[in-house]
Amino acid sequence: MPVLPLLRRGRRAAPPAEATPAPAADPPTPPVRVLPRAVVVLLGLALAFGVLLGLNQLKDYVGPIFLALNLVLAAAPLQSWLVRRGVPRGLAAAISGAAVFTFLLGFFYALGWSIAAMVEELSGSTYRTRYNELYGQLQDLLTRFGVEQEQVLDQLRNAFNPEAIIGALGGVLGNVTGILGLLMTTVIVIFFLLIDSTSAGQRIGLVREQHPRLAEALVTFGDGVRRYWVVTTIFGLIVAVLDVVALVILGVPLALAWGVLAFLTNYIPNIGFVIGLVPPALMALLANGPTNALLVVVVYSLLNFVVQSLIQPKFTGDAVGVTPTVTFISLIVWAWVLGPLGALLALPATLLLKAVLVDADPQARWANAFLASKPETARADSTREAVHQGT
């Protein structure tokens, strides 16, 4: 029997292949609506204003907390040095905290002593008599030039009257309750920050694992603020000593008090020099005449220019890497938000916002072109970010 028919009979017919269904078409993607850039800018400005307004309402708490953070950051090198020397972390934190408390108490004591010395000195009748003489001379001089506006002269008399100055200084000195409240809140916050500082390295390490750019920005902020406070304090002492020596040579009363005032106002950027200059110049005018007052202005201006404009920036480096315009605007804004304490914390507060909102966000690094004091620094950041994204 032939084998081929048997094979054909036993072979089963293969089932017809099923047709593969065609994939369903994806539904059309709805167009993404992007708000106009002007609307985004206005919304951002409105949100920023709302945040600043909220901080202004909480300035009695926000100011001391941020001041405590700055002081702890400034003392961090001492704590790190003690730990490297084998001192236990808790003891190192306690020693650095004692240094912070000593500086804080010394700051407020020097401020109170200088104000009390000014009030006591100006209370004498000698300066009232001298002031009346100068006021008469000024009135005669203005009359020669045809200026007879009694209202303007009365305003000048009320503004520069020793009694008005004593009243203003007494008001500052009498606000002991507010100063003690600020000091107490700052001390409590410093205490808790020092406890947390023993594990600060581990916490930054955890942040770096998830958000490396944010961790780098925070570390850079801490280094910059620390360098800013240390360098400003050192050069403030240098300027104060030079001012005291110059005032003693010129025979201006209260030379030590004016030196303390120059040291304290050195922490206020841009306008701190003017605040520290006006009182000793007026004292020199009352005590020794216009020529002596002019010499005080010239000496103060020369010392400020040489030390704070030529020498100090070279040591400060990139600690305050913002333009002078940004510095001045930040002074105005933070003085409004936090009051007088905001004038002292203006630059550190601006550096914190820059670190969180600009340096930590790759898409916002372009803002450094308008914020950074050195344009090449902003260009280097942009190049580094482009290389990072390319790899």
Can you offer a commentary on this structure?
With 391 residues, this protein is mostly helical. It has 18 helices and no strands. It has helices spanning 3-10, 37-57, 59-84, 89-122, 125-144, 150-160, 162-174, 176-197, 200-210, 212-250, 255-265, 272-288, 290-316, 324-338, 340-344, 346-359, 368-371, 375-390. It is globular, with a radius of gyration of 33 Å. Residues 386-391 have low confidence and may be disordered.
**Strand percent estimate:** under 5%
- Radius of gyration, in Å, reads 33 Å
| Poorly predicted sequence stretches spanning 5 or more consecutive residues | 386-391
**End-to-end C-alpha gap:** 76 Å
As a percent range, the share of helical residues equals over 70%
Count of extended strands: 0
Largest beta-sheet details: none
The total of helices stands at: 18
What is the average of the pLDDT values?
76
H/E element order: HHHHHHHHHHHHHHHHHH
Summing up helix and strand content along with how strands pair, one would put the structural category as mainly alpha
**Which term fits the overall shape?**
globular
Short description:
With about 400 residues, the chain is mainly α. Helix content is about 80%, strand content about 0%. The protein has 18 helices and no strands.
